[in-house]
Design a protein that fits this description.
This protein has about 80 residues and is α+β, with helices and mostly antiparallel strands. Helix content is about 20%, strand content about 35%.
């Protein structure tokens, strides 16, 4: 089963030179949007903190913008004998 959540970038923090930026996402919803009401019922609260060391990836994320987070199970590879 796959799970989809909707999160908003609430902060991007610079940790200093040569350090990854910290991107904070929160489950935040606009209750006037029907889709958001459905997400709020399933995930009323949540927070994700990502430490990102890829400037291009950080630039793609904008404070105040919503993003879907898809959680798809990963099949683990068997260890070689």
């Amino acid at each position: 089963m796959n799970v989809r959540a909707k999160f908003v970038v609430s902060a991007i923090t610079d940790q200093g030179p040569n350090s990854p930026k910290v991107v904070k996402l929160t489950a935040q919803y606009d209750m006037s949007i029907p889709e958001d009401r459905r997400f709020q019922k399933a995930t009323p609260w949540g927070e994700i903190n990502l430490h990102i060391d890829n400037p291009v990836a950080v630039e793609a994320l904008k404070i105040g913008k919503a993003y879907y987070i898809d959680m798809i199970p990963v099949e683990q590879a068997q260890a070689a004998n």
